[in-house]
Structures
1.
Amino acid sequence: MTEKEIDEFAIVRGIPNTFQDCVTLSLSHNTPKINVELARQQHATYCNTLEQLGLKLISIEADDALPDCCFTEDTAIVFGDLAIINYPGTSSRVAETVEMEKTLARLKRIYHLSPPATLDGGDVLKIDKKIFIGNSSRTNEEGIKQVAVIINPKGFEVIGVKIWNTLHLKSVCTYLGNGCIILAEGYLDDNIFSQYDKIIVPREEEYCANCLVVNGKVLIPKGFPKTKTLIEAKGFSVIELETSEAKKADGALTCSSIIF
Ligand code: CIR
């Protein structure tokens, strides 16, 4: 299996003052509110870690009119020298793509998705030339089809994956490299990944199925010791990061950057 070359850039965006107004399924009346200052500290540590792993940060200023703007992953997807500007599946997030497009237009050839397509980058799992796309409450079949039309001619194969009871495909599975997928069971037909080696996360640690791989290191959320051991047992080197505030906003490690 061919692996990706070295990653060079990460596009990130600051935490807005309005972060508590984000779209979320997690926050209920008995969940503690998002602490915006703490979220900023955790985001800063995330950014520093990406830099230490060799990435150049491209940072977009936060916009208080866009409470979810720090979750850059959802707004665009990059394939080699092209970038697709997404059509996020939640109306309050569509305007996040404006600054993302300006940023990516300096580096990539830009393509757009057009209505009725909707697609969040959190549904896009890249494994070399295979691109798995979650058909979720945010990403529809038309979105998947339009991505395929753009990238099939570049040699990518798009595979739609029906998912249920979760926000995004990558909320429940990510690719670690060396043919290994980490997966929470019960959210998709995992026969789709039969050709891969799998780490199944224990039920009580499902949030840890979203890991971020940067230049050979596996970044995982702090507080998931069983999964950490399983990942290390496969020979990966792990860095733990605190994500308590992003988690309250239904965010995880991949959500806060676009890496290429
Ligand atoms: C949302 O619901 O859209 C945000 N509050 C969280 C987005 C997380 N993004 C991701 O998983 N890629």
Note: The chain has six helices and 15 strands.
2.
Amino acid sequence: MIRPADSQSLEEAAERLRRGELVAIPTETVYGLAADAWNSTAVGKIFEVKGRPPTNPLIVHVASVERFEWAAAWPPSDELAELLDRLAPCWPGPLTVVVPRNARIPDVVTAGLDTVGLRVPAHPVALELLRRCEFPLAAPSANPSNYVSPTTARHVADELGDRVAMILDGGPCRAGVESTILSLVERPPRLLRAGALAVEELAERLEVSVETLVRPAPARPAGPAAQLAPGQLPEHYAPRTPLFFADEPVVATLADRRVGRIRFERRGANEPAATEERLLSEQGDLSEAARRLFAALRELDRLNLDAIVVDRCVETGLGRAVMDRLRRARRSR
Ligand code: TXA
Ligand code: MG
């Protein structure tokens, strides 16, 4: 059930979490499906409700950097402490760091890895709930595995419905794409997922180049076992309707079909309108486009169209995350 996030529902949410139940919560990026990260039974329910493979680790959320030791091996090495100091101004915010984990975090959270993904979300409701909890919250995006992430409480209810007893409504998410994930167990740090915090900002704080951060993963041994390495699963974020980029040759064959068109800029004067048009930002602002992208994909996906056609955008700032999500949606048909 969707509940406005007032003081009473926040206390009820904390109580449910203490009892090992799941609560859907707003964050600044996307809505999360939260459980007590120290309770393996509770965390197991997240995987069940989402249909998530057990090899895909969860992100752990805490109320402040001081509480990183609730999930991370502590104290950190001098080298890691220095990196965390440089990144500290990013929290609360849409940055997840992967660091060595402590023994209180059960295997189910990290898919058996000896590292954990950690962040302090920048949403007043998430922060207030985290402050009331005497434990960290494991929370993946609150959508069925591989579907588009939810950016409103209604999105969560549409897909997960009565499978979550409580959905805290904190309004539409400000960022609209998931957090940026940075591995601090590789040196120099390496980007694992482009997200709502621009990689350019991380490069500046860490005094390394963007190219260094976005370098490819170190080669792993070939074979099926390597492909299933935890934390490396290809996530899809895909609508059910086939999605294409506007510059693909196949788009020419869609002229007589029912097409949903997502644009980053206004339609050209000579270009015919598609069946459904969605302009993500009047001014071509990438932050605004990112904020509205998932809602647009969900809306178009409900209309039983033949295809969704979308422009490419520049891959700087939030454009990197937007293009990453669109490529995943394109690939997974
Ligand atoms: O913005 C977000 O990050 C949202 C909100 C709810 O915080 N959460 C989110 O979680 O997007 P999820 O489950 O959709 O993405 C978690 C991803 C995993 O798929 C994996 O790629 C990475 O985080 N991850 C988590 N722990 C990891 C670890 N120990 N090593 C490598 N990657 C890890
Ligand atoms: Mg997800």
Note: The chain has a mean pLDDT of 95.
